[in-house]
Amino acid sequence: MNPLELFEKWFSEEKQASKLKLPAACCLSTIGLDGYPNSRFVSLKEVTEEGFVITGPLNSRKGTEVEETPKAALSFWWTETQRQVRIQGDVTKVSTHKARKYFNERNRSSQIVSFGFQQGKKIESIKYLQNQFNQKIIEFEGKEIECPETWSGIIIKPTRIEFMRFKETRLHERKLYSRVKNTWEISILQP
User: Fold this and answer.
1) Which of UniProt's keywords are assigned here (predicted)?
2) What is the pTM of this model?
């Protein structure tokens, strides 16, 4: 089975079994500008034939890191099905058309935050942040919010995908799919 299809199957099974609000939450790891790994939780938007799509501001820390070193990793942990998926791959940007589509699917508050704030920048206080947000709500009342030029999506094109099914015996089942040229090689790994 193609590993992207296997991922979709496992993801679907977790969504059916889970009562979690955010089953698409995953840990995105990038190579920091200072050489240290950098991880944060993001939301998977879509799985395409090309790979795994996440979105956000390109001028954020994650955006500048993947611009400098276009490689990333995603990790998923699904409690209900006791499964983990780890993905490593090369990063490319989605098209402008796709970025706008993803932006338009966001709820209004998320659009306001994406348009009116610079992710990760220092601020005076939480109160200042709330006041700025309230002003943006008034400013955009009754108006469509355009996708900012600094906001887009990235695709992580997998070179390796590891699937691990946890077992009570600790003899976890691990399969590693590695892309070699245009085919997937499968290895069974020890727990």
Assistant:
1) Flavoprotein, FMN, Oxidoreductase
2) 0.90
- CA-nearest of 101, 97, 112 to 143 is 112
Spell out the residues 6+ positions from residue 19 whose beta carbon is closer than 8 angstroms to its own.
none
Separation between Cα atoms, residue 27 and residue 44, nearest integer Å = 10
Contact present, 40 and 28 (Cβ < 8 Å): yes
Q: Which domains does the chain show, CATH number per domain?
A: 3-105+149-189 (2.30.110.10)
- 100-152 confidence digits (pLDDT tens): 999 999 999 999 888 878 888 888 889 988 998 999 899 999 999 999 999 99
In angstroms, the CA 94 to CA 184 distance is 24
